[in-house]
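ok trying again, last paste got cut off:
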Amino acid sequence: MSMLGTHILAAAARAAGPQGETATRVHMGKPPEDAVTLGTLEPVLDDWIAKAAGSRESDIRMRAMFLMGGLSFSLSEVLAGPALDGIWLSDIPAAAVAARPWYMTYGGDGATEQVQLFDLWIDADALGAGTGPDGFGRAFEGLLAPLVEELHRRSRLSRAAFWREAADSLTASLLIHGKEAGREEAAMAAALQLVRQKGSKLANRQTGFIRVDLPERPDIAEWFRERGGCCRSYTSPGVEYCLTCVLRDRASRVDRLRDHLRRKHGLAP
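nice, full thing came through this time. structure:
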């Protein structure tokens, strides 16, 4: 295996954490026949879109955005992760990355939900590494551009909306890497370099990070990704905006993230 392949697998294992829990399963080498490369997605997209929102009631726009969010997150988690180790991929041919969705059901007591996740196959020998975020940003844009065009054509959502979702995926995945490595500041700095590049399709000044603590327990604090795009989950009946949805104001985000921290640390009333 090439050194790049070794670094990609190591980064993927880091993102999975000590329990090995990850939404993305990454493999090296030739993909199976039912996986498709990022350059040949068109024949399978209708099926992938139809299943993207799982069991939630949804329209074509929400399903298209869910597919963009899920696939771009998986790609970010695997391909952007090595940046935290100083390895910025700068050449990512679409033919070198293949994907296949898989589906997981979670929940209980009659309230189950199915989610769409991804297996990825990487031909590491076809990848190239550069020296910084500019090359990675261009390569990542090139990898996602055909998907953005197809989703835009099918859903009539703007291309910019899909690129905002991709920027959110990049920042979220790098923050996960930073938390697992104990290097949150470095991970957030790398992420912001990608989404603050002038002229980049990934540029988004609203995507960022927020540190939230508990007033009653200031020792409990955590960094979160703030969205600059919208997954459109709120358009499903009975579903609220996401915790850090761009459609929430800052006070609303902080209040809900503090509630999340209380539940996480067993402090909820």
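cool. The chain has one domain: 3-203. Residues 3-203 form one domain.
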